[in-house]
Amino acid sequence: MRHRCELKLGVFPSVTGARLVFLSLAGLTFAMAGGGAGAETIGDALKKAYFNNPDINQQRAAVRASDEGVPKARSGYLPNVSANADAGLQVLDLQSGGSTGAPPNTVSTRPRGYGLTVTQNLWNGNRTINGLRQAESSVMAAREQLRFTEQSVLLDGVTHYMDVLRDTAILSLDRNNTEVLSEQLRQTRDRFTVGEVTRTDVAQAEASLAGAQATALTAQANLQTSIANYRQTIGEEPKNLSPVRPLTRPLPRTLAEGISIAYVEHPGITAALHGVDVAALNVKINEGQLYPTLGVTGQLSQRYEFSNEPGTRGLTASLVGQLTVPIYEGGAVYAGTRQAKEQLGQQELAVDLQRNKVRAAVVSAWGATQASNGVIRSSKAQVAAAEVALAGVREEAKVGQRTTLDVLNAQQTLLNARVGLVTAEHDQVVSSYALLSAVGRLSTANLGIALAQYDPKVHFNQVKDKWFGLRTPDGR
C-alpha cells in the first residue's frame, strides 16, 4: 500500500542543499494511492461509521431485541387459549355367567371429541404491570446504551482520522530528516577527505542517519496501524483526508456547566438510572409471588360415543374461578426478594460510580482542551526558535566554531519540535471532540452531519402491540 502527503505550508531550504519540509496538520491532506480527486471530510468519515460500524449495528439489534420484552410482558393481560381433540377405538366384550344361557355380546365404540380451554389471569400480585414497566425501562436503558455506543464509535472515528493525519505528517518529517542527514553525511565525508573533519565526525553523522532511518521505519509502522484502526472503525480505507478544525461552539463554556450537562445527558449515567428502575421493579415482581392470584378458566367440549354407548353425544361447558393463596414455598421467594434488593443497591452504587467516571472524563477533557491553545503556541515558538538555531549552528560550523555533533543535535531538536507541533494539533482536535463526548452530546446531529438518523422508536412502535406473528418487521 503506497501513500503520500500533500503539503500546503512552507518549504525551507537548508545550507546543505536538502529540503526541510515543515508539516502541520492544519495544512496536511492525506491521500491513498488510487483515491478519487475529491477530499473526504471528517463528516464523510463519521457518516460511514454511523451506518456501517458493526459495534453500532449490533447495539441497534440489541435495542430491537429489547423492544420485544414489552409485548412479552403485556401478554400477562391476555388470555391463554388452547384447543384439543382426541379419537380412539374401544371394544367391550360382555360375557354372560351362570345358567342364563345368554350369548356373548361385544360392543365397539369410537369415542372422540374436541374442546376449547381459555384461561384468563385477573390478578397476580401486580406482577404483570410491574413486569411491563420493567420491560419499558429495559428498552430505555438499551436506547441509552446505543447512544453511548454511538458516541464511543464517533470519538474513535475522529481519533483514528486524526491519527492517520498525524502519523502521515510524522512519517514525512522523518523521511525528510533522513534525506537531510544523508546529505549531511555526504558533505561530512567530503570534508573528511580533505582533512577538515575527523573520522569521529563521520561516525557521528553515520550514527544519526542510521537512527533517523530506524525512526522512519517505526513511523511507517505506526501509520499502517493507524490506517488499520481507521478501517476497523470507519469501514473503508482512508482516502484524501481533509484537515480538521477543533470544535468550539457546541462545547460548554465553563467546567461547571460541562459537569452539570454531563450529569443530566450523558448516556452512561442515564442508562444506569434506567437500570435502577429495572432493579427496583424486579423487587416488586419477586414480592408479588407472595400475593394471592385470581384467575378464571372456561372450557367447552363436545364428546361422541362416550360411556360405551354408540350414537351418544354430549356438550359440556364450564366457567371456573380460581383463587390461589401461597402459604409457604420453601423460602425461595423470600431469598429471591432479598437478592433482588441487594441487586438494587448494587445498581444504585453503579450510578454513583458512573457519575464519578463521567465527571473525571469531563475534567480531563476540559483541561486538555483549555491547554491545547497554549501548547500549540509554545510548539510553534519552539519550531521557529529551533529553525533559527539550526541555521546559526550550520553557519558557525562552516567557520569551524561548531562541530558536526552540534549540527546533528540542532537538526534533531528541530525535528522533535516539528513532531511536537504536529502531535499538539492532533491532540487539540481530539480533545475537543472528547469533551463533547464526555458531556454526552457527541452525535451526528450536534456535529451538523446531514444523514437519516436511526430512530429506535420506529421498531418499538411496530412490535409493542403485536399479539401474534413470527416475522420481524423487516421480514425475517
How would you describe the shape? elongated
Q: Calculate Rg over CA atoms.
A: 39 Å
Record the strand order, biggest sheet: 5-8-9-10
> What percent strand?
5-15%
Largest sheet: 4 strands, antiparallel
In CATH, the homologous superfamily of the largest domain goes by the name: Outer membrane efflux proteins (OEP)
Commentary on this structure:
The chain is of the alpha+beta class. The chain contains ten helices and ten strands. The protein folds into two domains: 3-78 and 126-291 and 331-463, Outer membrane efflux proteins (OEP), CATH 1.20.1600; 80-123 and 292-325. It has helices at 42-52, 54-67, 69-74, 127-193, 199-234, 255-265, 267-288, 332-398, 404-438, 456-463; strands spanning 3-7, 11-13, 19-21, 28-32, 80-87, 90-94, 105-109, 112-123, 293-304, 313-324. A four-stranded antiparallel sheet has the order 5-8-9-10, with no helix packed on it. A hairpin with an 8-residue loop joins strand 9 (293-304) and strand 10 (313-324). Helix 2 (54-67) packs parallel to helix 10 and helix 4 (127-193) packs antiparallel against helix 9.
Features:
alpha+beta, Outer membrane efflux proteins (OEP), single chain, 476 residues, 10 helices
Concise structural overview:
Helices cover 58% and strands 15% of the residues. With 476 residues, it is an alpha+beta fold.
How are the secondary structure elements laid out?
Layout: E1 3-7, E2 11-13, E3 19-21, E4 28-32, H1 42-52, H2 54-67, H3 69-74, E5 80-87, E6 90-94, E7 105-109, E8 112-123, H4 127-193, H5 199-234, H6 255-265, H7 267-288, E9 293-304, E10 313-324, H8 332-398, H9 404-438, H10 456-463
Antiparallel strand pairs: 1-4, 2-3, 5-8, 6-7, 8-9, 9-10
